[in-house]
Fold this sequence. Notes:
The chain has 3 helices and 14 strands. By secondary structure, it is α+β, with helices and mostly antiparallel strands. The protein has 2 domains: about 1-55, no CATH class; about 70-220, Distorted Sandwich (Glucose Permease (Domain IIA)). The strands form 3 sheets. It has an 8-stranded antiparallel β-sheet with strand order 9-5-6-7-11-3-2-13, with no helix packed on it. Strands 1-14-12 form a 3-stranded antiparallel β-sheet, with no helix packed on it. A 3-stranded antiparallel β-sheet has the order 4-10-8, with no helix packed on it. The protein is elongated and about 65 Å long. The N and C termini lie far apart (about 40 Å).
Amino acid sequence: MNNSKWPERSVIPFAIPGLKFVFAAAILTGLLFLMEWTVLWCFSAFITIFICWFFRDPERTVPDQYNCLVSPADGKIIVVEEKTTNEFTHEDCIKISIFMNVFNVHVNRIPFKGTVEDVIYVPGKFINASFDKASEHNERNALVIRTDSGALYGVVQIAGLIAKRIICKVKKGDQMERGSRYGMISFGSRLDLYLPSDSKISVRLGQKVQAGSTILAYLNDHDRIPTIT
Length: 229
């Protein structure tokens, strides 16, 4: 896992950890073009375009509805279930899992404002992230976040069959804003959320979601939860 500091977003619309790959591919493509190696230049140009596209980092409009919790990743909802406990918050919870394929934006965002109480890295395997057992057996990195109202939730980056590089820029004690960028996982992978058991879920299985903009749930706060239709 790479937990080096992620600097402020640059004017270039790419994820910061991917800039070195973008520049390296562009330079190689330019050299092959100057050397007039047509076949290699065309192949390298294709790879460069793919790398630029893969590391894209689009802006998102973060909703400001009271107590809404947004998706930490682009992808598809593959699990929504109640659990009696979990290894990160150690409380009754609702688990939501999001599967990211290679075509999704891979930048991860903070679901809800709060303080990072713990960062837990667990080494493990690299089986297909779409399988439920990936939550327990794969390499993963969890943030345990306490909201201002005292609610506790966990968001877990999980490596997949191809994805073997988890990037997380935050550390214990950091104050995080809803929708802020905090890391990424290269290539297809999975994110799990462990929400308080009284959260009001607003997504369904199979639904496509976007990091920072799709509302997954509303956290309970003494009957101040909006009505979900």
